[in-house]
Design brief:
about 180 residues; alpha/beta; Rossmann fold
Length: about 180
């Protein structure tokens, strides 16, 4: 199945394998990781391999891609993995998935998906890790989704335009 637009082998390695490794120290081995728009399984599956104790829920709107994700998880013998085939138009569509310990997405209109009313996105001490372009990160920094506060960014090995935007729960928002 062709689930990525990348053709260059070194670009595939940098983007799909090295980027999750760069983020892996931000995760613990317990809790639930929800990955929005999981597509080809990156960064979710490498993060699960690196943190086998995490419960992983991959959310994907395409039935074809969802079937692929389940097959990969089965082939790798990953336990505690679930795929939710559902369309996300806003925060309310995340019912039953949030709050979670970790929330990830890679440029799938993520900030839009987290907009609107709804419960808290993250458990206390959790992190949101958004694999985005630098300009997207700046937009998220200036206007983070409700219930989240900006923490920092990290450069990613796929190039100077790609960053990891890191957000944490905004505990003052729930008071």
């Amino acid at each position: 199945m062709n689930l990525t637009g990348l053709k260059d082998e070194s670009a595939i390695i940098r983007r799909h394998f090295l980027e999750p490794i760069v983020a892996s120290d931000l995760l613990g081995d317990e809790g639930r990781l929800v990955d929005l728009g999981s597509g080809n399984g990156f960064p979710a599956i490498p993060l699960k391999v690196l943190h086998p104790g995490l419960e992983l829920i991959m959310v994907e709107s395409s039935e074809r891609k969802s079937a692929f994700l389940l097959a990969v998880a089965r082939e790798l013998g990953l336990r505690g993995v679930r795929v939710e085939t559902r369309r996300l138009a806003g925060r309310r569509d995340l019912e039953g998935l949030i709050p979670c310990r970790y929330l990830t997405f890679r440029g799938v209109r993520g900030a839009e998906l987290l907009a609107g009313e709804g419960g808290p996105l993250l458990d206390e001490g959790g992190k949101a890790l958004f694999f985005v372009a630098r300009d997207e990160a700046e937009a998220i920094r200036t206007d983070p989704p409700a219930g989240l506060r900006w923490a920092t960014t990290r450069s990613l090995p796929s190039g100077p335009r790609s960053v990891l935007a890191i957000l944490e729960p905004d505990l003052s928002a729930s008071r």
